Amino acid sequence: RNDRYLAVASEPMHRFRTTKADSSGARVIQIWDLHAPIRETGALAHPPSVAMYIDLADSGTVWDMKWYPGSASATRIGVLAVSTGDGTVQLLSVPRPDLVVASAAWSSSSSSTVPHVVLQPFAR
């Protein structure tokens, strides 16, 4: 497979953090599917889209994230290391979006839903 994904964590516009001690805030990571380019032209066949939401529950603000290279498998898109406001670095096994059941509560539009998962780290 030639899948390409981007992990994005964001803060609401009205919130501004100056220290890592302020750990409340965004606990959701968006996983964007960048779609494989067309081999002949290099152009994208489809525009990037949100493929999945990851809920980190009580971990606090996401300060940094890094994908572990070569960690993809048949059931996961990879391992994501996440530094959070509670002072931990969590290792998350991120499942393939097509293997996660979509939730109506996380609808991206009225006609489609985006999968949503609550992941527990396999290591801290």
3D architecture notes:
The chain has no helices and 8 strands. It is 0% helix and 43% strand. With 124 residues, the chain is mainly beta. It has strands at residues 5-9, 28-33, 49-55, 62-68, 76-84, 89-95, 102-107, 113-118. The strands form 2 sheets. A 5-stranded mixed sheet has the order 1-2-3-8-7, with no helix packed on it. It is globular and about 45 Å long.
List the helices and strands and how they pair.
Elements: E1 5-9, E2 28-33, E3 49-55, E4 62-68, E5 76-84, E6 89-95, E7 102-107, E8 113-118
Parallel strand pairs: 3-8
Antiparallel strand pairs: 1-2, 2-3, 4-5, 5-6, 7-8
Can you summarize this structure?
The chain is built from no helices and eight strands. It has strands at 5-9, 28-33, 49-55, 62-68, 76-84, 89-95, 102-107, 113-118.
Task: Please give a handful of descriptors for the protein shown.
three-stranded antiparallel beta sheet; mainly beta; 0% helix; 124 residues
**Neighbour order of strands in the largest sheet:** 1-2-3-8-7
Q: Radius of gyration in whole Å, from Cα?
A: 15 Å
Q: Find the count of extended strands (DSSP E, 2+ residues).
A: 8
User: What's the overall geometry?
Assistant: globular
Strand content: 35-45%
Biggest sheet layout: 5 strands, mixed
What would the average pLDDT be, to the nearest integer? 77
H/E series, N to C? EEEEEEEE
Q: Structural class, please?
A: mainly beta
Percent helix among the residues? under 10%
**Regarding quaternary structure, how should these chains be classified?**
single chain
- Number of distinct helices: 0
| Unreliable segments of 5+ consecutive residues | 104-111
N-C termini distance? 29 Å
